[in-house]
Structure formats: C-alpha cells, structure tokens
Amino acid sequence: AQKVTQAQTEISVVEKEDVTLDCVYETRDTTYYLFWYKQPPSGELVFLIRRNSFDEQNEISGRYSWNFQKSTSSFNFTITASQVVDSAVYFCALTPGGSTLGRLYFGRGTQLTVWP
Amino acid sequence: DAGVIQSPRHEVTEMGQEVTLRCKPISGHDYLFWYRQTMMRGLELLIYFNNNVPIDDSGMPEDRFSAKMPNASFSTLKIQPSEPRDSAVYFCASSLAGPNQPQHFGDGTRLSIL
C-alpha cells in the first residue's frame, strides 16, 4: 500500500524565518518517485520538484531545499528566509515505480502562513 | 506552452441539474487525470485515462459520475443528477508516460451545488 503522511496540518511563521515541512511516506516498491506541489490561495496546483528513490542527494533551488532520507522514509521541504508569497498549501506525493501508470498518492497537505 | 485548461472556473447550480466539467490536456501528454478536492477528504483521484482509454475509475464516487475522453485533446466529467455533497473543486491534470513524470494541473473548477 502507498501512503503519504504530512503530520503538520498548519504552520505559521513570521517573514524571514526558516520553515521545514515534513513528509513521511510508505511504499513496498523499491523504485518510487516523490513530488512536492504548491497550492497558493488562487487555488492552482503547481509542481515544485521530483525526486527518484535512487537519488538521495539533497537539492537546493534558491530559497527552497529538499532533504530526502530513505532510512527514515522522509522527504522534507525547507524554505529559507520565508516570504509572504510562500503562503500556500504544500502537498507531498508519491508514485510507485512498479507501474507505468504514474498514479499520484497525495498527503493531506500543510497550510503554511507567512506573516509580514 | 499552454497548460491544462479547464472550464468553467466556477459553476453554481441547483441540486438535480446535470453538470459538465471540461478539460483540455497539454498537447502530447499521454495521461489525463480527474481529481476532486474537499476539506474533508483532501485530493482524491476519481479516474484516469491513458491514450484516451479509461484505466482506473475506482475513485468515481457513484454512478452519477461519468467521464469521457473522446480524443487526445478533450475530456469531460459529468455529474447527473448533481447533489450538494458534490460541491468541491475538481481538477484535471495531464502527464507524459512514466511514473517519474510530474502531473500538470489545471486551475480547477469550483463547483457549488445548492
């Protein structure tokens, strides 16, 4: 069975603080893919990053960084020096690699509010 | 490149009416997905298509829901008859083949059934 857990329902920070969004996943597949999506107040879902299970290298893109640890089945997302525009719901998702169908299993999301 | 296009953006209708949601996927994408998002249940996959063929419709809540993909550039999700509990945001997404391919989402249709 595939499962993604985002234990933090809501997080509030003040601008310029660093914030980490947690994601823990469950899968029996040895090959799988992890994704993060952002849903701003306007409602659309925006793809942020993809990571495959064979690549545990952390990734940094500007103020965003992702920490993938297979040992703890986690794929956490850190925003450095947060800004008001980062306020959104962030979803972590998993696709098992055993299938070509690309079905995404989403977590429930974390609502991030960044206050000025 | 145009993204996934959904219409309408908002729909308000009365219980019992037929509702049709439309989606145009990104050109060249092999897969098309319909999701429903509610506060209670989060993002739920309703159905998805591969090369216009429905692959898995196990997420479709009941017979009142139906989806079609007559060609590679168009899909519809129909609810007949609609009920207040169908109120939600409905997303369409498309992707290239392969589990490593990200899904690209439309802006969603916010549906309210009165």
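DSSP finds no helices and twelve strands in chain A.
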